[in-house]
Fold each of these.
Amino acid sequence: MDYETPQFFRVMQYANRADRDVVDMVSGSPDWEPPSALREGLSDYAEADPDEFQYPPSVGLTELREEIANRRGLDREQIVITNGAGEANHLAMAGGLELFPGEEILLTDPVYPYYAGRANFINAEPRFAPVGPDGRLDPETVRERAGPETAVIVINSPNNPLGVTYGEETIAELVAIAEAVEAVLVSDEVYDHFDYSGRFSSALSVDSTHRVVTNSFSKSMAITGFRVGYAVFPSESELLENARTRHMLTTVTGSRPAQAAVLRALKKTDPSYYEEVRAQLQARIDRFTDALAAAGAEYVEPEGAFYVMARFPEFPGTFENVERLIDEAGVAGMPGEAFGHSYEEWIRFALVSPRVETAADRLAGYFDGTTEGNQT
Amino acid sequence: MDYETPQFFRVMQYANRADRDVVDMVSGSPDWEPPSALREGLSDYAEADPDEFQYPPSVGLTELREEIANRRGLDREQIVITNGAGEANHLAMAGGLELFPGEEILLTDPVYPYYAGRANFINAEPRFAPVGPDGRLDPETVRERAGPETAVIVINSPNNPLGVTYGEETIAELVAIAEAVEAVLVSDEVYDHFDYSGRFSSALSVDSTHRVVTNSFSKSMAITGFRVGYAVFPSESELLENARTRHMLTTVTGSRPAQAAVLRALKKTDPSYYEEVRAQLQARIDRFTDALAAAGAEYVEPEGAFYVMARFPEFPGTFENVERLIDEAGVAGMPGEAFGHSYEEWIRFALVSPRVETAADRLAGYFDGTTEGNQT
């Protein structure tokens, strides 16, 4: 499987060339306001002394690492600030592959395609654990597929593309599997602020030298372009040392204006900001899944993140059908086949558009017509 | 050889712990004002619409690539915006090693230690071409050491740590050597705005499928912490495709606030800004080298960049002597042995302090005293 962006591009370009108005539900870029403290932090930084415009420490601004550590009950030294969660995942996956004996990286199916692209890129053998029809990952499936050949297991909770969240027991079992097979569990938790179920459990809750947690402020602060993420490694571990070296020799250090703005936002943003965004997304999900039900579609009820996977009657999630939906319904989603095999009948819709309502109406109307058409 | 920062840290920590006032001439972070348009660009960006806070294209903001391409007579498609020149060098070196048959990376001695650290990190065999006692790199020395085992040749002009610049003929010969041995010449030109000799010639002046030019705005705009650099690849080359993929899968894309600020500064900054900075540095160099002469030191007359390599009588450039200079003279430099073997008798001073005058006086006084002491 190739990595995600070219496939995103393919769909987005098709949507842009369409003769009609199209609601873009393809990319995962938030459409809402960032915290006001983030804008203030950036404005203030623009007036800073020239010495604040110079290299931050390679592992990131000390105050930012300290703030994250305090909030999460960690030691600052465990944290490396990265160029978004993308780099955090890269450091953890490449380091795990180097330090643990196996040659395989175990992923879920469906998978966030970047993980698979990165596994290929670092010359690991990707292997896939399919999730169940309810979207859940059964640790038994992971246990069956993990073994001495496994160096890294990557999970994402709350999950893209399925919207499920993994509870405490699941996480504990997955960490135990990583320990048993001498691998590292990489838990990408970038959607942790978007848990509607109350079930979400960070892998930080399980103390282990075999787990790394990655995260970023891209989604929680609506700033995917700022590129501020982080990885939390086991204290004084080889994984940590490996990541520090890799980070220094590939990117040197992250961008300081973005780190300064995030630091301010982290310190000064009231919890109500996150609650309001969550409520807005919950309302979008409700409205959209109501329309899916009306269209006779199956869907996985999102417990977290901001994606909905849906299956329409006799309308598999191919690129062809996604293009048909753009032309005939004016709604652009991502084909399920872009995420693997187990959900290739499905289509993913990202609820990062103020026009979710319009999209819902269009889909309900389109499939209602189609269904009737099929019935006559 | 290890990479630079820990060695920098060692010296800087020693200087910070000293009981006396110390002039820091260790790091290469500018101490002067960035262009005012850079600050304005960042302030304005802080007020932008939320969609401007989302992912820029992986290869960088289109307008920024366009602006660079227009200024340098390039095709925008050749350019990848990177997380500083550090990432640009990483992409070019790792890509060259992957695509060309050899296993070695040929560097100069003395070397900017990051190149050597990176060569080790990507499992290449580093090999060194020593420069002459005048600081110049003789292409013959490179020709002797290059062969089928060479995949990449890395040069830096204007040079850190020596301050020499390579003229047009040297660059053309180096590109020809890379072509002859099936390697890529990576020309790191981050100090191109600091050429006092008028001799500097970019490797872009030689058209070849065997050269990559890397650069950044870190030094020219006094923003080492912003992390905006770029690499220029041969059009439609495998090197370009390799770098795009590596960039996407390791860092996804660069930080957008920094790119937006640099774009504004690139468009709106008058050439007088760069001229004034250059004049200020030229004055510092003159003042400092006068003091070196007074102290009886040898030095390489800087033609570019903002470093001076100096050799004091009976005072080799070891860590021990650098620490002695901190304690006894109140001036901190980098030991020549941190840059390789051929200049291990020397000490590098970075002229990025408003206190160059003070440092010059202290050194002149110290070595005058020492010399007299030795003579009695």
Amino acid sequence: MKKLLIQGADVLQCESDRCRILRCHDLHIEGNRITAVAPSESAAAAPDVEVIPARGLLAAPGLINTHAHVPMGIFRGLAEDVDIETWFNEYMWPLEANLTAEDVYWGMQLGLAEMISAGVTAVADHYFHMDRAAAAVDRAGTRAALGWAVFGSQGALGVARTASFAEDYCGAADGRITTWLAPHAPYTCDDVFLAAVAAEAERLGLGIHIHAAETAGQTEASLAARGRTPIGVLADAGVLDRPTILAHCCGVTAADIELMASLPCGVAHAPKTYLKLAMGAAPVLEMRAAGIPVGLASDGPVSNNTLDILESLRLMAMVAKHEAGDPRTLPVGAALTIATRESAQVFGMPDDLGHLAPGFLADVILIDLGGAHNQPAHDPAANLVYSTRASDVRTVICDGRVIMRDRRLLTLDLEEIKARVGESVTRLSQRVPEARIQLYRP
Amino acid sequence: MKKLLIQGADVLQCESDRCRILRCHDLHIEGNRITAVAPSESAAAAPDVEVIPARGLLAAPGLINTHAHVPMGIFRGLAEDVDIETWFNEYMWPLEANLTAEDVYWGMQLGLAEMISAGVTAVADHYFHMDRAAAAVDRAGTRAALGWAVFGSQGALGVARTASFAEDYCGAADGRITTWLAPHAPYTCDDVFLAAVAAEAERLGLGIHIHAAETAGQTEASLAARGRTPIGVLADAGVLDRPTILAHCCGVTAADIELMASLPCGVAHAPKTYLKLAMGAAPVLEMRAAGIPVGLASDGPVSNNTLDILESLRLMAMVAKHEAGDPRTLPVGAALTIATRESAQVFGMPDDLGHLAPGFLADVILIDLGGAHNQPAHDPAANLVYSTRASDVRTVICDGRVIMRDRRLLTLDLEEIKARVGESVTRLSQRVPEARIQLYRP
């Protein structure tokens, strides 16, 4: 079994809203798991051990993106400064009429390259042509929870589409891929469709990844049209009986939170999208107080416009302070616990990811705090939340394998990816309103 | 006269809330001024011209930071998750009891290194021991508007301190340094002190840089104690008859805005500090609608915790959308106009900075949009606001001189700076409450 030794790093560990840094420790890895974390030894490593010198670097768990539409990066910058209805109906859904399976393959690689460079080793992705997304993940060496997005208008074929992908690709890429069924949202899926997806998820023993209560407006519209909130709709359809990733939840009510707390769901939190599209603020504090896990997310790179989880981390903490009117809200330790342990929980792997300790999977990033913007490093944890940039991530290990070393990508060819995406730019940027793939009318 | 040719760049120009990109243009520079911007020519440059190849790079005006306390970077991370009163009284002011002139010299260099690396070529800095800050600016090759901060408790000596520095250093560093008188804030300066500073500013023909109406709470406290808002206090003291940089203004009233619009003041806007310290949101739209120029700012790196103006730009646009509840608010063109032309106006150099056109000073940054997080570059202007990172800045020219080339700093020695700051870290991090330099009690 392959052995890796990360030598002399300052190791970040988070637990129950507190974090600590173990100065100058060694991380021992065998195969794809961490076997030991111990004070650094000066003795030479055994000859069969690959050593990664990490003195002066901060070792953190690989970042987890709990909700994205990664391949949408190919449309980045094409839908700016518009309201959410226009964003869907005049931009995204007409643009996505252009989408081919190969666009997804190269768009996914582009986004994976961006995420690896930013220390993100795992992503819960919700999009189309996910067989091609899985091929990109296999190539990149990262971890992903993939769901093939479907709409109620697709009927039984849609249910079969998302279920058969989930069945076929569960455990793919040497186990680095998990799968989730992925109905789009309560406002694009009727009750019968949602119940059918929930039944398939139960049959397969899998979870469901869905947009829910994205704005207060959606909740009001749902109450008016269906007499229940979006969360109520999902609960009635049996969706929430499955492990569920609920994306956004800016529009959940107090009663929704009480209900959610009794069910196996987690919330994917993408604060940059909420600011940029003026969707309101998600009740992060209230949901966490009720015991609902919250994970960091980017959302798609057309609303974000990046896949940068360090930026999501910072915005989450700052918006929480702003909304509460109290700068003591969501302190550094809580923010980093969300970014690590709690994101792993939302991602469905609480005992395997988000922590650098024996028994956990070896998804590790090494961060260089030597840049002027991080100096002096009085408090590396505070730096990580408020000063560090994605570009400070130097080396990335996923599943026990080095996939970026000293900022050089080892699994993906960015120049090739840019060339292939570049060939399609003109075609991709033509909006085809008459062929829009859905209509936003919550 | 030294000649520089930036060849084949995509040149960003902003005007009246719109921006355009001139594809593949040459920027001609003689001495410290831009002499021409024209479609790129393939002909070889004359032998006395230094050529900077910039094909595929975005050329933008050097970024301007209209309000900071740059040397505070030496305290970065030492005051997290505390309310504003505690931030001042238990952290910053007891910490600043440790401050020496040499700390300012090395802290200023640290911050200038950070800013150059992030494309910031000009800063309006408001701090202590500013003779040493000026020496650092001279060495760095950047531009600065410096003010020596003084408190009312210093009496006539304080007035003389800020005035004599402003008089002595106006035009220093080959004209790259302008000076401003710098009383701290209405809540730390009484009416007599403010009037004395205003009189000195008038005598010297210089402007005033001051904190004002930082929060709604300060405005309420001022009304209770002095019967006037902080803006009213400054107007009555004659401060606002001078060109003025007003930092923050989250707590200005509608009447304040009307008054400010008739006076030669600009507002420095530092949105990251407002979020992080829960200070509220500044009325950027209302101030601009009244004709008051708004410039981007970082504030000090203990509240920010960086000096990253691209981050301020992004936060300004996103918070404006969030607060207005409308994503059409402050679109890309307006945000970039604030970042360029309007920041130059607040900085006091509207006809010299913030625009890449003949006659303007040659402060130019070259940005590489080739990273995965900026690709494909459907809309480079949107990228600049929402996707670009400080680390994408490749080359920086200030006053016609290259001060960073391909990310290598040419004027400052970061390793030396880190070593010198590092020597003082233990001494600097000891809080001395009994020696706090002021008491926050607005």
